[in-house]
Fold each of these.
Amino acid sequence: MINVENLSKAFGARTLWRDVNFTVDRGEMLALVGPSGSGKSTLLNCLGLLDRPSAGAIRHEGNDITRFGRREILRFRRTTLGYLFQHYALIENATVAENLDVVTKLRRMPQGKAGTAVAEALDRVGLAGRGAEKIYHLSGGEQQRVALARLVLQRPSLVLADEPTGALDEANATMVVDILRELSKDGCAVVVATHDAEVRDRCDTVFAVHESSLIGSARGETIPS
Ligand SMILES: Nc1ncnc2c1ncn2[C@@H]1O[C@H](COP(=O)(O)OP(=O)(O)OP(=O)(O)O)[C@@H](O)[C@H]1O
C-alpha cells in the first residue's frame, strides 16, 4: 500500500529524522512512537502530503507521491486519504449529520442512499439517532466518534491519525482503537502517531521515529516503552 524509502527531514541544519524505511499494507496498523518533538506529526504530514520530506520517496501503487503536482495531490487526498486528529476537526456549529453530509456530497451519493449511509455510519460508531445534534453539544469522545463515522463514510484506503486518543479517557480511547482496527480489517492501511501505550500495543507494527527503526510488532514480540 505505502512504502516509505530512505525518507529524511531536515529544517535548516537540524535533521529531524533520517533514512526512515517502512511499509504499511492494507489491513495493517502501524504506530509511530517517540518522544515529544521527535517528528511523529511531521512524518505523518509527509505521508499526507501536507509537508515534504527533504530526501527519499513515499511510494503508493508504484508512484512516488512526494513528486506529485497540485492536481495529483488533490486527487490523492480525495480518493485515498482519510485523517483523524486529536481535536476532531469537525464543523462545531453544524449538526452531526451536516458534518457527515460533507463526505456524502464529496462522494456524490444520491440523497436517499446518503441518508442510509449516514445512519449506518452513526450506528457503527454507537451514535445511532444522534444526527440532529450540534457538534458543540457532544462530549470529546462523541466528537471523535463523529470523526470516525466520517472515515467510515469516506472509505479511504489510507488513514493517518495524529494522537487520536490524546484528549480522551480510557473507555473512549479503547472505542477509537476498536473502530480503527475495524477499518483496517475492512482493508484500510492505518498509520497512527501516538503516545498512548494501549494504541501502540494494538498496532501490528511499531516504528520508533527517534531511532528511525522498527522496534517490534505487537503480535508476539515485546515492545520497549
Ligand atoms: N516548518 C517547520 N520549521 C521548523 N521546525 C519545524 C517545522 N515543523 C516542525 N518543526 C519542528 O520539528 C519538531 C518535530 O515536531 P513534531 O510536531 O513533528 O513532533 P512530534 O513528535 O509529533 O511531537 P509531539 O509528540 O509533541 O506532538 C519540533 O521541534 C518542531 O518545532
Amino acid sequence: MLKLYRFLKPYTTYIAVIIILLCVQVLSDLYLPTLMADIVDNGLANKDVDYILHLGRFMLLIAAGGTLCAILATYLSSKTAVGFGIILREKIFTKVEEFSLHEFDKFGTATLITRTTNDVTQIQQVSVLIFSMMITAPLTCIGGVIMALQQDKELAWVLVVTIPILFTVIGITLKRGLPLFKVMQKKIDKLNLVLREKITGIRVVRAFNRIEKERVRFDDANADLMDNAVKVNIIMAVLMPAMMLIMNLTTVAIIWFGAIRIEDGTMQIGSLLAFIQYATQILFSLLMLVMLFIMVPRAQVSAVRINEVLATNLDIVDPEKIELASSERGFVEFKKVSFRYPGADQPALSNITFSVKPGELTAIIGGTGSGKSTLVNLITRFYDVESGSILVDGVDVRAMSQQALRAKIGFVPQKTVLFSGTIAENIKYGKENATMEEIEHAAHVAQATEFILGVEAGFDHEIAQGGTNVSGGQKQRLSIARALIRKAEIYIFDDSFSALDFKTDARLRAALKPEIADATVFIIAQSISTVKDADRIIVLDAGQISGIGTHKELIDTCKVYGEIVASQLYEEELA
Ligand SMILES: Nc1ncnc2c1ncn2[C@@H]1O[C@H](COP(=O)(O)OP(=O)(O)OP(=O)(O)O)[C@@H](O)[C@H]1O
C-alpha cells in the first residue's frame, strides 16, 4: 500500500496540516483528565468555587480547541482520501487504456472494473482511518501511559495485566479474521463477473431459457460472498464486546484498587478519576490500532491488485526512437510473419508474406478460425508478431508510434461497437473535428442516411449503451461511416458487410469504390461475391496462405478457394 502512497504528493501540505491538527487534538485530550483531577482534588476538596470556575472555563476552551482540530482534521483527511481515490482511478484507467488485447485477455473485464471501483474505494476508506488513527492511536497510547503514571505509579500494574490480555484477544481474532478479509475482494470479483455476463448476455440467457440456471449461478456467487462477510462480521461482533468487557473490567479493577489506595491516603479521588480516563484512552487507542490492523490487510489486498495493474509491463509500447514513415502512403508489407496467441500450442498465423500498395483492394477469405481477423489485428498492432515483420509505408510497425500508425487506418471491427451518444457523435468518433457535411457524407456513403433520417431526431438520435437500439446492419453501417470519415490511407473492413442485405451490400460497395479508390483496402469476407472483384485475394487456411491472386487465377490454382467457390455456387443453385 505504501507503494501507492507515492501518488499522494499533491496532498503533502494537507497531510502536514492533518498531522499538526491531530497532535494538538491528542494533547488537548490528554490534558483534560489532569485538569479534571486538579478541579476535584484542589477545587472541590477545598470548596473553592472560583478555582473550579476558572479551571472549568479553561477546560471548556481546551475541549473546544481539541474538537475544532478533530473536525478540521477529519475534513482534510476525507478530502485527501477522496482526492487520492480520484488519482488512483485515473492512473488505473490510463494504464488500462494502454493495455494490448493480450493484457485485457490476461486480466478480464470484470476484475479490471472491480479494481478501478471497489478496490479503490477500499483504499480510500482505509486511508481516512490511517490519516487520523496512525497519529492519534500511538500518540494517545504513549501519552496516556505517561500521564497515567504521573497520576499514580502503583496502579499501573492493572494496565500491565490488562494490555497483554487485550493483545491476546486481538491476536486470536486477527489470526482467524485476516484470511477471510483477504478473500473478500476475490469473491466480489466473482460476483461482478457473473453479474456482468448475465446482464450483457441477457438476450441469450432468455432465448435459451437459462434464467433459472443463471439465477442459481448468481445466487451461488452471492451466497459465497455473504458466507465470507457473515464470518467476518461474527468475528467483529465477538471482538467488540470482548474489548468492551476488558475495558470495563479494567475500570472496575482501577476503582477497586484505587479505592483501597484512597482509603490508605496514598491517592486522591481526582487522581483516581483521571487514571480511569487515561486507562480508557489507552485501551481505546489500542482498539483503534486493532481497527487499523483489521482494515489495513484488506486494503492491502486491494493495493496489491491495483499495483498489479499499474505495474503490468505493457506488451506493446512505443519504441524509444520513433521512426517516421516515409512520404509513401498506404504501403503494407508482411515479411514471413508468424504469430501465436499467448499460451496457444499452434500458431494462429505462419509464414505470411505479401505486399500491397495504395489503390489496391485486398480481400482475405478462409474458413472460420483460419486467422483472418488475427492478420488484420497485426496491421493495427493490437498484437505484436512472434517472428517476421510488418512494414507500413516502409517502416516496421513496432518502430512507429502507435498513434501515428493508427492515424493511418480506418478500422471497422468484426464485432461492432458503438458508444452511448448521438448518431452524429458516434460517426464523429472517427474524426474529432469533422463538420456536419463530412458526417452526412460519410453516412451517405455507408448507406446509413435512409435509416438515420427515418428516426425522429435524425443525426441527433441517441444510441443506447452498447448500441442496443439499432439493428445489426444499422450498427455496421454507422461503424463503416465512422471509419470513412477519417479519410484514412488504409482501410480494414473485418467482415463488415455480413449483416447487410444483398441490395444494401451492393449499393454500399459501389458508393465505397470512388471514396477509397486511392487507399489501401483490406476486406475480410465470407462471400465470393464480395471478394471476386478484388485486386488480390488472400486465401487463408489454418493460419497459412494457401493461395494469393485474382479470382480467375485462384479458381484454377488454389484448391481451398475452389472449394469455397463450389460450396457457394451450390448454395446459390439451391436457393
Ligand atoms: N484472443 C485470443 N486468444 C487466443 N486465441 C485466439 C484469440 N483470438 C483468436 N484466437 C484463435 O486464433 C485462431 C484464428 O482466429 P481468428 O479470429 O483470426 O480467425 P478468423 O479467421 O477471423 O475467424 P472468423 O471467420 O470465425 O472470425 C483461432 O483458432 C482462434 O481460436
